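Side project, low priority. Logging it here so it doesn't get lost.
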Amino acid sequence: MTKNTRLQVAELEKLDIRIPITTGNSLSSYLFEICASLGRGEVFIWKSFHCGSKFTLRQKQIYKLDYDFATIHFERLSELTKCSTEQLQNLTFFPLYHKFFDNPYADYVRAMVMIQKEIVKNYRKYCPLCLNNEKGFNLLWQIKGFRMCLEHKVELQNSCPHCKQTILYHDNVLRLRRCPHSDCRGWLTECSSRITELEVLNEQSQLYHLWSFFLDPKKVLTKRVTTFSMEQSLAIKLLYVAQGFSEIYDRSKQIGISNPIAKSLTSFVRGNRAVKKVTLQLIVTIIRTRQLNIEQFAELEVPLSFVNTIYAEKKNEASGFCLAPWCKEYRKKQSMILIKKRVEPRRANLRYPNYYVCISCFLRYAYRPDNQMWNEVDNRIENVKMVRKLANKGLSKIEISRQLEINFYKVSEIIGYLAFRNLLDPSIENDYKPDVTPGNLAELFEMVQCDITTFPEKRFKKYKERFGWSLTEYSYFYANDTVQRFFLNKQSNLKKPIAKFNAIEKKANQVLQELIRSELRLSYEQTAAALECSESTLRAHGLSNIIEQAKSKQKSLHLHQEEKKLRGKVDHFILNAKDSEPLLLKEVFKTLGHQRDYIKNKYPGLLNYINGKVNTHNEIFQKRAWENKREEVKAAVQEVIKREPLNVTNVAQKVGIERPHVKGYSKIKALINEVIKEYSAV
């Protein structure tokens, strides 16, 4: 706490603030009541219990009082108002955070992203009748979807009924109850139309009931499940309810949530904090889908048998046989190895969570997700058969590609595969084999950045550029067993299905633009929470660059805003500086509260601005001081003429200079000579 703040707190304590708290009202409304009672400004009062960045202490950010607990020193406010910290916290959304997080301060970013999706911050909703009765602003009114005062059954307003201008969140209209705009000043207490539609009344009543539960500090959404955190316990309960209260977890039977969200919640319960977590909308969606009320949801207890099955290891299915007729392991299982990586064959519209590879022929197999039939994943068996048949007839690669409508480079890779395994007719086989095969093929392939999912033409061009291989050489080398084993063990860069996530980048750009302008420091965690996906999804879809650019843009914006405010302080300081005294740079830096090196490193433009302003002030000061000195010399000359010989020494002594011929007085000596000449000329 700064010295000024301590003095301010001491001054407020003397005033003995005893404004009673109205249940249901917001903290910003309570602050307005205090200000109206004391006749002081909102920022002046807020400063006495504010914490966090000083740049949040602004009139236009009064809305933060209702949800951003990091800007409020509740203990200090409690001392000022003689109210308990619990009473004051209940005027904000703080009780909601405790229903989701064990420690809201530790999960601050998650809490802020969650609540900012639910509330309106750019205008104030008010009930004209409540305003007329001086009842203040209800906290629930700022939630999106609320449009009715439950007590009076009238529609909430957000603008003046006369001039139609918006009532902003920070406009304190409690005391005068008039429009805050100077060109209007009309009464805001004129009653709006009453809501009579039964459907709207029921909808608003249910919304009030739901949010009243969320903000009731005595109620909980769930009991903690064994050693899990509160949010993990909520995730477990959501999975349990969405599955229809079954005692065995089965992701395929979830209703009300998508499979990816169910998978994400399961991963979160298992300890992965980088995935999508519980949201308010998710809870509301599930209880409505299962036709529960919020009390029924809260009272449910999840059986431990369900929790244990979430952790149950999924047994891998036994592999099928190799289906390639030319393979030495044809119709055998011994050569099959399990690869725990997902695979998505192009144009197949299927996604296999894992697959098997025959280490004899290197074809991939899996059980189809739609019918659980064992099959070859890439359809290479049929392609190999058709390409082999046409190649043995003497058709070229380009002819085979056109006839079968298969990519030319893919045809070349298949012919290389056939040539390496001696499956082509001997008369043409040597046409597709290189003269020399390097002994370290796997090491050469490892030098280039690509994997098994890379398009054949792109893969070939990379190796051609690096080693100068022809297409025939590349295709033959690629079919080598050591190369295939290398790609088998190489981590794939395969992203999630494009069709399902093609809008994520567009949505990310929109969300990032909103986050850039927010006060929260932009991060991957915050972006993931706003997009309702995991951090790994952001990186998998190549969004790292645009997030880093957004972080840089937000930093630049915040620096610009801070510099603008500092420039305002400089202007105010210089405007109030005395013209009769020179300005010192250290006085300016003291006013700003920063050292010169800090300003130089962080705001180089501001340092130039300060130097320019100070120099301009000092030049004006010096000019006026010199003009005053000239007038003083003139007066001295007039006195000397009357009584003594007119010379430099006598005039200088009159203006207080005993030895004008000393080196340091050359300028004043020149001025005296100049004035004497003017008088001599007259």
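Brief comment: Confidence is low (pLDDT under 50) at residues 494-501.
Revisit when time allows.
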